[in-house]
Amino acid sequence: MATGELGDVGGYYFRFLPQKTFQSLNSKEITSRLRQWSMLGRIKAQAFGFDQTFQAYRKDDFVMAFFKDPNVIPNLKLLSDSSGEWITLGFASGRLRKI
Predict the structure, then answer these.
(1) Is residue 9 part of a domain?
(2) Which structural domain range is residue 67 located in?
(3) Residue 69 burial (CB < 10 Å; 0-12/13-18/19+)?
(4) How many CB atoms lie within 10 A of CB 67?
(5) What are the pLDDT tens digits along the chain (99 aa)?
(6) Measured between alpha carbons, how far is 6 from 52 in angstroms, rounded to an integer?
(7) Number of domains comprising the chain
């Protein structure tokens, strides 16, 4: 899908922004609190951009389009409840792919 082209679901086009950093998660105070709550290494922030103005009345379309977008599926990281490993949203042979 080319940049600027409408997405297949809901007309949204999403793009993964891997260079985007979240300095607040790296601050000394936050790192200390995450460690205290046993969350250090178990939380990540990822950025995705989209091509339209968000309209609250279309929130359901937005969410469905996000999780079905071909740029989101292979890039969105999830923490597996069973293994504790980071995996991607994408499916390979019916199973979640590890990253």
Answers:
(1) no
(2) 14-96
(3) buried
(4) 12
(5) 444 444 455 688 999 999 998 888 888 999 999 999 998 888 889 999 999 888 999 999 999 999 999 999 999 988 888 888 888 887 432 444 444
(6) 10
(7) 1
Residue at 82 is within a domain:
yes
Strand ranges of the sheet holding 95-98, from the earlier edge strand across to the other edge: 77-79, 86-92, 95-98
Position 9 scores a pLDDT of: 53
Where does the chain have alpha helices with state H? 28-36, 59-68
The answer to whether residue 20 sits within a structural domain is yes
18 part of a folded domain: yes
Q: What is the CA radius of gyration of the chain?
A: 16
Q: What are phi and psi of 57, to 5 degrees?
A: -70, -15
